[in-house]
Amino acid sequence: MFPPFKLFSMSCGLSMTEAAAFLKVSPEKARIWWEGGEKVPDGILSGLGDLFRYIDGKAARIYKSMMLEAERTREWPSELYLHIAADDDVARKLGFPCVAAHAAVSRRFLEMCQPEQIGGVIIIYEKTAPEPDPEP
């Protein structure tokens, strides 16, 4: 069974503990929601929904950029380089609550790709972060 809190959290790449920290709720309350023991307030699910839309938007921009480059060069790259924050501090500088949420952008990007577009995948762990994009 996937209670809404668990489903929304996992869709953002968040563990129960990471979701609790992101939403600024107690780990005990998060556990109750994770297990489906109580109805989750709408504002909590809305917060996770906002994070998912942010992740999805970032992935869509990467995919669009890759498609435009593929049209320009008339080929899709044989290897995909996925940049993931090396730690939570870097992830936060990039506008994400933790590494797992930042990694969810790469997961979502790969979900957008057609199977034939996914050749080799190389993960690069970023130890520093440029300034984050302004929020929409």
In a nutshell, what does this entry contain?
56% of the residues lie in helices and 10% in strands. The chain is mainly alpha-helical and 136 residues long.
Topology:
Layout: H1 4-11, H2 16-23, H3 27-34, H4 42-73, E1 79-85, H5 88-93, H6 99-112, E2 120-126
Parallel strand pairs: 1-2
Written account of the structure:
With 136 residues, the protein is mainly alpha-helical. Helices cover 56% and strands 10% of the residues. It has 6 helices and 2 strands, in the order ααααβααβ. It has helices at residues 4-11, 16-23, 27-34, 42-73, 88-93, 99-112, and strands at residues 79-85, 120-126. A two-stranded parallel sheet has the order 1-2. Helix 1 (4-11) packs parallel to helix 4 (42-73) and helix 2 crosses helix 3 (27-34). It is elongated, with a radius of gyration of 16 Å.
Nearest-integer average pLDDT: 91
Sketch the major β-sheet.
Answer: 2 strands, parallel
Helix coverage percent:
55-70%
**From the helix content, strand content and strand pairing, which structural class follows?**
mainly alpha
The total strand number stands at 2
Q: Please state how the strands of the largest beta sheet are arranged side by side.
A: 1-2
Indicate the radius of gyration in whole angstroms.
16 Å
Number of helices: 6
Strand content: 5-15%
Order of helices and strands: HHHHEHHE
Q: Which stretches of 5+ consecutive residues score pLDDT under 50? A: none
